[in-house]
Amino acid sequence: LSNGNLSFVKGMETDPQLCSTVPVNLKYEDVKSALLPSPACLSHWLWLSQDQLLCVFHSSSSHLCHILVDNECATVGWTIPLDEPVLTLTQKTGSSGALIQLSSGTVLDFQDSLSPSFTLPEPCVSVRSMGQHTITRAHNNRLYVDRELIADNITSFYCLPHFLVMTSSSHELYVTSAELGFKVEKESGTNTARRLERGATVVVAMDHSVVLQLPRGNLETVEPRALTLVT
């Protein structure tokens, strides 16, 4: 907020409710000098655990901030200066770690400390963790798995624990997995591909179903054969 406090809201899309508002405690002098006088320049919020947040502070340079939250206050424990602006901040699967993508496409691995991990072939608009794999999509619809290009027409994707669900600019839904080597089968009517309405994108996938948003704004649920066969 403009006064430097943090507010927590639940149900933002339907019937939003204010849970709590807590002051931000700038614990150390170096943190105070970094964040003041512009405590509102924080972005890329990410819950690491029930009481830990990561975010990015913007001033003349970017800093990664670690915040501990309790019922009374939010404490900024430390900040780490970064060499470049941050594009994405993503939680790693099954851990309290995170992947930080910088503007050049360099990805940093945060797990208690910050270390370089790898550099993407190009900066990506979406970064997700899927087990030991990192799935990324660039603005030109190129989809990479661990920096390897697997498709160049992907408009959206969603990671399940064992499956990767995607939509394409050719209006098809693809389902693949690490077991299949993330191979994209582009022939409609197979277990891993089916035709979609033009412009449909993935909202969420769960168990054996996938929720799609259509260009008119309405939602549609489909059950891809590749998912129903294993559930």
From TrEMBL:
<dbReference type="InterPro" id="IPR056165">
    <property type="entry name" value="Beta-prop_ELP1_2nd"/>
</dbReference>
<dbReference type="Pfam" id="PF23797">
    <property type="entry name" value="Beta-prop_ELP1_2nd"/>
</dbReference>
<dbReference type="GO" id="GO:0033588">
    <property type="term" value="C:elongator holoenzyme complex"/>
</dbReference>
<protein>
    <recommendedName>
        <fullName>ELP1 N-terminal second beta-propeller domain-containing protein</fullName>
    </recommendedName>
</protein>
<feature type="domain" description="ELP1 N-terminal second beta-propeller">
    <location>
        <begin position="37"/>
        <end position="203"/>
    </location>
</feature>
<dbReference type="GO" id="GO:0005829">
    <property type="term" value="C:cytosol"/>
</dbReference>
<dbReference type="GO" id="GO:0000049">
    <property type="term" value="F:tRNA binding"/>
</dbReference>
<dbReference type="InterPro" id="IPR006849">
    <property type="entry name" value="Elp1"/>
</dbReference>
<dbReference type="GO" id="GO:0002926">
    <property type="term" value="P:tRNA wobble base 5-methoxycarbonylmethyl-2-thiouridinylation"/>
</dbReference>
